[in-house]
Amino acid sequence: MIQFEHRPGILDLSWGHPRPGLLPVEEWAAATATAAREFGWRQLTYGYPTGPAPLLEWLTAHLNAIEDGGAEARQLFVTAGASHGMALAASLLAGPGDVILVDSPTYHLAFRILADTGATLLRAPADADGVDPAALAGLLATLRAEGRRVPLLYLVPTFANPTGRSLPLDRRRDLVSLAQRSGLTLLEDDTYRELTYDGEAPPSLWRLSGGEGVVRLGSFAKTVAPGLRLGWINAAPALIARLATLGYVHSGGGVNHAVATTMSCFGASGAYDRHVATVRAEYRTQRDALVAALRPHLPVAAPAGGWFLWAALPPGLSATRLLPEAERRGTSFAPGPLFYADGNGGEDRIRLSFSHLTPAHLTTAANRLGAALAP
Amino acid sequence: MIQFEHRPGILDLSWGHPRPGLLPVEEWAAATATAAREFGWRQLTYGYPTGPAPLLEWLTAHLNAIEDGGAEARQLFVTAGASHGMALAASLLAGPGDVILVDSPTYHLAFRILADTGATLLRAPADADGVDPAALAGLLATLRAEGRRVPLLYLVPTFANPTGRSLPLDRRRDLVSLAQRSGLTLLEDDTYRELTYDGEAPPSLWRLSGGEGVVRLGSFAKTVAPGLRLGWINAAPALIARLATLGYVHSGGGVNHAVATTMSCFGASGAYDRHVATVRAEYRTQRDALVAALRPHLPVAAPAGGWFLWAALPPGLSATRLLPEAERRGTSFAPGPLFYADGNGGEDRIRLSFSHLTPAHLTTAANRLGAALAP
Questions:
Q1: CB–CB of A41 and B52 under 8 A?
Q2: Using the beta-carbon criterion (under 8 Å), do B252 and A82 form an inter-chain contact?
Q3: What's this model's pTM, rounded to 2 decimal places?
Q4: What DSSP letter does each residue of A6-51 carry, written as one string?
């Protein structure tokens, strides 16, 4: 029925899924009842292509509340999740023969979505702080001198998957400026923005760009529930118009209309804000539990947001070789090389998700990992 | 908020949308409450890629109940509506440079979905009975001799949009046999199958094919509600596997998981069967009202299923020229040329939808059309 089931005996740190106990079953059921009462048949017929007005209104206000200058309604297209949004945006912006640049390391399941356009993926130059704008300008110039079209750069600049890090502000500015100068579109996966545990999230590339040169992917998967398959795209109105006139949207209307109208009730009732406050506190506790339990075994830094720790292994240890040993001890993780588009890199790193397990289970999992690491 | 709002003063026969009063607002709200109770957090996390088991089980049983040998679970992929399914299947089977053949006339909003693959659309040979398999074999041979790849033929063989007609049984058999011999995939839009008013629907191409050479698109839009954005694809297991490993599905899991699990409750409770029986009776009444009111003005035949009348205009009248006259009188319709991929044909035909209005409004609309037709 669902995408992932725990294997017996394994406390798995490899999946970036929400903890089941944090999913708002009752609150969502209440919102569905409200939506049925409030919208009646209008929730069940073909929806407006860019999304139902009540959600566009609430979401616009919400995006502006969490970040000044967040978005206007004409810069919004409601999607059936961030992955769906990524597939739609990439299909409009890139195609066979093109080059799509991707951060390294970055969200590994994006690679296949982007490659489904027929484009070739190449690693953007990056160091420990993330994408390096100066080196990127050089690579862009080289590729274009070779006659390659390079329409897109994909990255998760805020509380990144897998590293938990955020791109420094000066690099954000330089990246946006480079994108606007060079006609490169930054595909900003901003799905972790609201999961912040130690203060404010940095400004989005989207906001810094003033709406040109950046397409931002948003999602309700982390803040509410992934099974809803609901998210949004922020983009310039011209791209929003192209999304709305895709054949499939033109025919079927709003791509997830009934759920989108329910979300407008979930938002307007205050349930969204309450729920985000709850999960933020809970994920902070989970983060702290995992970091504390790992520290005797691994030198990990606590990320300021998101769902992931990106841990460096002791010298000489390989993530790929450690994995079966960890699983024999009853835990698991995502090995570093997964997160490099060419599989080349990250052998000394592992991604540990603190989203999926209780603090007690995270502690046990960390101890098992520690045992696997022991010489 | 929604895709279509009536223009003031116009009783519109052009849109193939359900009548608002027939949308199951209370029954669907009851199913959402049941699903929350029954599935809890499992409804809100990432879903199984091909669809949640409870829906696959109910839907398999249902498809076999309405048509012997309907489908196996391994031949099912749950989609976010038939348009979404069409876009996904077409993106896997066709691409730039290919030719996609389409019935003439046929569902006009499919054209853009199919063209979004980058393929060129060409009309398949058809006469008053629908696609002509012998002439199609000739066209296929010619195109392939020219070096064209022709992977797909799109058609609505049962209670078609816009004609209401169904392809005769011998042509169904010949088409399937031609497809299997020639490696052409028939993309069968089977979304009207359960809206049958005068006895049984003819066997689907999918069933006649034994599951090879046909991809069938199913939908809950007409039988339950379009705003849910829920449907399915029937295809050979190899294609189902390709759908499930699309980057976007691999990343996000089941494409409309929460709604799909709710539909399993709607089905299992008997609400689906009751609702289809209700709408079948109501749409039959609506059909009869429109046919009866039109007959003094136009020689129309009552279709045995679906949502549409395909009326021939009196000699010398043009659909395009009639349209502003009809709108001045307070009604509207879809002019015939819309339904031809090359816009070439159908000037003597109009499509009238009886799905959207009450019998009383349909009668009024028909009288207004009659007035527009009067010399």
A1: no
A2: yes
A3: 0.97
A4: PPTT-EE-S-----GGGS-HHHHHHHHHHHHHHHGGGGTSPBPTT-
